[in-house]
Amino acid sequence: MDLPYRPCVGAALFNRDGLVLVARRADLPNAEGAPGGWQLPQGGIDGAEDPALAIFRELKEEVGTDAAIILGEHPDWLSYDLPPELLGKALGGRYRGQRQKWFALGFTGRDEEIRLDLDPHPEFDAWRWAPLAELPAMAVGFKRAIYEVLARDFARYAVPR
User: Domain count of the chain?
Assistant: First the structure.
């Protein structure tokens, strides 16, 4: 299939202790410890939307709060391809994978403000704070390389502030 990449943003949201917010996919509720069950918030860019604005919209939609500040931005767009068995099915069947702009964000709110129940069809059903270095082990195989890049390149934000 000759499909395009979906333009997307991703959020590594760090709390004051230097831990990153990970959320469990609602479509994989039994994947508590399985790779791929947990991920960082991410989502599509609408048309010509500025990625720095899209990241706050996506945070609000997926985790119920946009109480954050941008600490940094990955200099590159990072891409992944869907595995063959998901082509034509995942991402509405319209994309071969995603091309993502990643942001490191500092959470400025309180844990109580993180709400997964505000969307009638939530993407996530649980969340927690985790060490950044654990991200690659949590990722589904086809996203693992991106999480390895983030664990390395965003390590400077994974410190208490």
Answer: 1
Name residues whose C-beta falls within 8 Å of residue 8's C-beta, 6 or more positions apart in sequence. Answer: 42, 43, 44, 45, 98, 99, 100, 101
Token code pair at residue 8: 């997307």
98/42 Cα distance (integer angstroms): 10
Domain range for 73 is 5-157
The pLDDT score that the predictor gives to residue 37 is 82
Q: Considering Cα of 92, then 38, then 99, then 55, what sign does the dihedral take?
A: positive
CB 72 within 8 A of CB 161: no
Q: Are 53 and 44 in contact (CB under 8 A)?
A: no
Q: What's the mean pLDDT in 25-41?
A: 72
What is the CATH number for 64? 3.90.79.10
Predicted TM-score (pTM) of this structure = 0.93
- With a CB cutoff of 8 Å and minimum separation 6, the contacts of 16 are 107, 160, 161
